[in-house]
Amino acid sequence: MAQEHIVAVGLLTNRDLERLGSGFKRCFPVSDDGKFEDLLRAIDAADAAALRAGRADGPDAKTMPSLRQS
């Protein structure tokens, strides 16, 4: 069997999961203990640097243009 590739990682609330419905089956809860703060800061910094550089090369560039406006 071929290995499945991860296509997205997201932070969702319980309400988000309810909206996605029963078809969304692969959810891995994480504790709110700050262990991911460094990672989240690094992702935010990379996004901000890409915006400053005027790059719009990610998948959100076409599907979510509102995220590029700040």
Please tell me about this protein's structure.
The structure is a single chain. It contains three helices and no strands. With 70 residues, it is mainly α. It starts with 13 loop residues before the first helix and ends in a 7-residue tail after the last helix.
Write the layout of secondary structure elements.
Blueprint: H1 14-20, H2 37-52, H3 60-63
Principal-axis shape equals: extended
Q: Please state the average pLDDT score.
A: 77
Radius of gyration: 15 Å
Give the N-to-C terminal Cα separation.
43 Å
The run of helices and strands is HHH
Q: How many strands? A: 0
What is the count of helical runs?
3
Largest beta-sheet details: none
Q: Which structural class do the helices and strands define?
A: mainly alpha
Oligomer: single chain
Helix content: 25-40%
Fraction in beta strands: under 5%
| Unreliable sequence segments | 61-70
